[in-house]
Write a structure and sequence with these properties.
Oligomer: heterodimer
Radius of gyration of chain B: 18 Å
Number of strands of chain A: 5
Helix content of chain A: 10-25%
Largest interface: A-B, 19 and 19 residues
Strand content of chain B: 35-45%
Radius of gyration of chain A: 13 Å
Order of helices and strands of chain A: EHEEEHE
Helix content of chain B: under 10%
Strand order of the largest sheet of chain B: 2-10-7-6-1-3
Largest sheet of chain B: 6 strands, mixed
Shape of chain A: globular
Structural class of chain A: alpha+beta
Strand content of chain A: 15-25%
Chain lengths: 67, 184
Amino acid sequence: MENKLKKPSLPADVAKEYDSIIVPTTVMISKGKAQGTYDLTKISLVDAKKLAEAGKYLVAKKATDKK
Amino acid sequence: MGFESLKKNKIRDNAPGLRKNILIAERDWFVANTGLKAPVAPFTNPGDSLRITESHEFVEGFGFVPFHSTLATAELTAENVGERESRTNNPSLVAQHPGLTAEIVEFFQSRKNGDWIVLQQTLAGEWIQMGEDGLEAEVMFSFGSGRVDGGYQGVTATISNYGKPYFYEGDIVYHPAVVPDPEV
């Protein structure tokens, strides 16, 4: 059968700045400053920064890794 | 930990029932040995022995699968089973999912032999977990067409296990959804 599916990914602008440590999906964070529900496939740069700073699921790319 | 008293909580609204989303994940989807979290001693406050405060960790590409239940159909009950001085709990969750289609029946049919960890949320917001390592939950189902003059067309899911209900306070990661590839 022809494969017509692919893994979900971060939005292009977010992917330039951050790597996801999980396959991008919806996450519900229960505690802390980043508390809330986020769809990593549609996340904004502002929310991505919030998650990365909280050490949740996203990590900032090193300057040398950015394309 | 101590129980000097168990007084009435006059602040809690204590509305009955469960919210619509029920989350299930197969035991094998959690990171081996350490991914499925459990309460961690020392248990300082009353209730701590049933609180899971760390976040479950999944193997890459896995997470909790939500399924919708019609509001006011989901109910969690638990009875004592066993014999005097040797009893445990038998939690059981019954919920209805509307519709009788190939996709819906396949969803439940393909899950009937798995070992499941299940989360459901009270109206107050607590996530109650059924299933633990070695005492996972079973997902069973039945379906009905209803009648032309009434009734309910859909699947009734019955999820049961043995052991304690836990109160999950960690993060929830949903199962990633594959998306159509425009390049194929």
